[in-house]
Amino acid sequence: MAKERLVGSDGKLVTVVVSDAVSGDDTDDLDELAGGTSGDESGKGWYEVVAIAETAPAIPDGLSVGELFWDDGSLVLATGDEVSLLTETEQADVTSFNLEVSKAEIDVTTLSDGVRRYRTGKIDMTGSLEGITTIGKTDSSGWVINNFMPVIEQASAGTVTVSSIDDSPIFIKGVLQKDTDSGEKEAFFWAKINLLGASLGASGEDAQSFSSSFRIAPGDPEPTYYVREIA
User: Which of 1, 70, 148, 203 minimizes the number of CB atoms within 10 Å of its CB?
Assistant: First the structure.
């Protein structure tokens, strides 16, 4: 039976890299455009819409540039369609995440009003991450520690890898329902964020942990909630 009431373990957090865009030619399907062969599912996954053909686009109706859709790799894009495949990395060090959403209240009360009147302003979103400090995860390039300080790693052979501070925005999928069995529904919010603060440390016999706050980064995409019914 499909899950309708979710628990914490139904979720996960993944960071996402958006690949270079591929263009449709009315002939090759997404498997072939991804470098594979038709039917091998090498192009299976979530795609960001980069451009939509002016005439007879193959991209699903209703979508706009910057929004996402899922395909099994069999879609043949029209000439003028452009999409980018999302490559996901599960952040297995994260134990919890949240996104809080609110609207500003604007007092528009006049002297003739008997009760105060309000309008809503722009939507504000703020989030946080918490996790267990994990060597090779928490300190990986572009992730929590590296967002605030350089990471220098020296291998046993003596070779050194230097990761300078990388505080560029991060694309994340905050997955609320990760089960992709037939009949289930995958659900997640999709956003580009900036990490704004982090804490690290150790205490007694407790697990070493980290926490970090984040805000929505400028530019596309708009934060969006997606639900996909699994065939």
Answer: 1
Task: Convert the pLDDT of each residue in 71-110 to its tens digit.
Answer: 999 999 999 999 999 999 999 999 999 999 999 999 999 9
Asked whether the beta carbons of 144 and 198 are under 8 A apart, the reply is yes
Cα–Cα distances (Å) from 138 to 57, 131, 171, 211, 224, in that order, read 41, 9, 16, 11, 26
Q: Are strands 151-154 and 160-163 parallel, antiparallel or unpaired?
A: antiparallel
Kindly report the pTM of this predicted structure.
0.90
Q: Which residue, of 87, 105, 121, is where some domain finishes?
A: 87
Q: Whole domain around residue 109: which residue ranges?
A: 94-229
Q: What are phi and psi of 147, to 5 degrees?
A: -70, -20
The tokens describing 63, both together, are 């979508």
Instruction: Give the pLDDT band of residue 1 (cuts 50, 70, 90).
Output: low
Over residues 222-229, the mean pLDDT reads 96
Nearest Cα to 231, choosing from 9, 34, 71? Answer: 71
pLDDT at 184 over 90: yes
**Residues 171, 189 contacting (CB under 8 angstroms):** no
d(CA 151, CA 144): 11
Please compute Rg for the chain using Cα positions.
22
